[in-house]
């Protein structure tokens, strides 16, 4: 059995780009001097590259422009219990993730500002960020724009597609309910702090 089987993968650029547009916050992973670094950074797609920005106080900033990176975009996950099915099953997890490998590099300040405006435009239809917004002028000194030149994409969508249509629909329903229940739990935890 190969990892992941073909029925759990979709590497078409149309699917990958759409997934990133809906789930733009990525775990950015790099390695430097035998140490692993991770950050959580939103990215947008621009001409087959990914654009984002990083805080200059982030330890990852010091080497990122010299690094090969992996980004993991998260679309959720869910435990699937055998008790939900009449057929004999094993416990499993279903998930939707996109992995992208590439070379990171820093961009000029003008590209940083453009990426901030473009990202806001893509993510927010209620607010328009202008290039002249006074907070951008203050913020730009503390962050660095970056781009990732995409070298490899891997869409991993394990959603019980290898099962019967009834099983697949049940697994999708469990996925939705689990995501909602877990988010409600998290929000209640935060309220208690």
From TrEMBL:
<protein>
    <submittedName>
        <fullName>FMN-binding negative transcriptional regulator</fullName>
    </submittedName>
</protein>
<dbReference type="InterPro" id="IPR012349">
    <property type="entry name" value="Split_barrel_FMN-bd"/>
</dbReference>
<dbReference type="InterPro" id="IPR007396">
    <property type="entry name" value="TR_PAI2-type"/>
</dbReference>
<dbReference type="Pfam" id="PF04299">
    <property type="entry name" value="FMN_bind_2"/>
</dbReference>
């Amino acid at each position: 059995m190969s990892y992941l089987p073909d029925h759990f993968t979709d590497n078409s650029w149309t699917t990958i780009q759409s997934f990133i547009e809906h789930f733009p916050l990525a775990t950015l992973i790099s390695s430097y001097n035998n140490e692993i670094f991770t950050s959580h950074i939103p990215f947008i797609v621009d001409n087959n590259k990914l654009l984002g920005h990083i805080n200059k106080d982030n330890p990852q900033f010091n080497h990122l422009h010299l690094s090969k990176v992996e980004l993991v975009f998260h679309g959720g996950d869910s435990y699937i219990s055998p008790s939900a099915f009449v057929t004999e099953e094993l416990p499993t997890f279903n998930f939707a993730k996109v992995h992208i490998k590439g070379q990171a590099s820093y961009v000029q300040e003008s590209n940083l500002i453009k990426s901030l405006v473009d990202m806001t435009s893509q993510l927010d239809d209620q607010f328009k960020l202008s290039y002249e917004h006074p907070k951008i002028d203050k913020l730009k000194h503390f962050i660095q724009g970056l781009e990732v030149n995409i070298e490899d994409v891997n869409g991993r969508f394990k959603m019980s597609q290898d099962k019967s249509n009834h099983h697949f629909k049940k697994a999708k329903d469990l996925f939705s309910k689990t995501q909602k229940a877990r988010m409600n739990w998290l929000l209640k935890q935060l309220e208690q702090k």
